[in-house]
Design goal:
The protein has 162 residues and is mainly alpha-helical. Helices cover 49% and strands 6% of the residues. The radius of gyration is 21 Å and the shape is elongated.
């Protein structure tokens, strides 16, 4: 950062460029090809990635920052959930960082296994169909690995709401 004392010796154009670059680096979504998700095959995906690239300042464009390696780390993390609080924390972080809404609740009918839970990822531009399917599958594997979380979810959504 340029200090006030040294700002007097910097030409105005350079100072403006420094401030602009600092603001740009901290307030907008990066759009370089190296940090954005690779394009999907056009016939297989309906994510709308190209439409989001047209307006990179959109808040919805942050989902494009979920690259394949980051998605793999996310799926591993979702499979390794250890408690209901951990699951809620992951839901909050998914929304805060990527804008992804993940809901986990008991299904409309009786829950006899982990397949009885409704685990949904809301559709949004830029989020691939494959990712929308793999996130709930990873959560379901995490629930199977730690069934106490499933019991706590059922307790949260019990008949009386206690």
């Amino acid at each position: 950062m340029v200090s006030v004392a040294s700002a007097n010796h910097v030409p105005p154009c350079s100072l403006a460029c420094l401030i602009f670059c600092h603001v740009l680096a901290h307030n907008t979504v990066m759009t370089s090809a190296s940090v954005l998700r690779a394009a999907c095959p056009p016939a297989l995906c309906d994510c709308g990635r190209d439409a989001l690239l047209g307006e990179p300042s959109s808040a919805q464009a942050r989902v494009l920052l979920l690259t394949k390696p980051e998605e793999a780390r996310l799926l591993q993390r979702l499979e390794a959930i250890t408690s209901l609080e951990d699951l809620h924390h992951m839901q909050r972080r998914l929304f805060e960082q990527l804008g992804i809404r993940l809901t986990v609740q008991p299904g409309a009918s009786e829950v006899r296994s982990m397949r009885g839970f409704e685990i949904c990822v809301a559709e949004q531009p830029g989020l691939c169909r494959k990712t929308r399917q793999s996130i709930p599958a990873a959560v379901r594997r995490g629930l199977q690995r730690t069934p106490e979380i499933a019991y706590r979810i059922l307790d949260e959504h019990d008949l009386f709401g206690l």
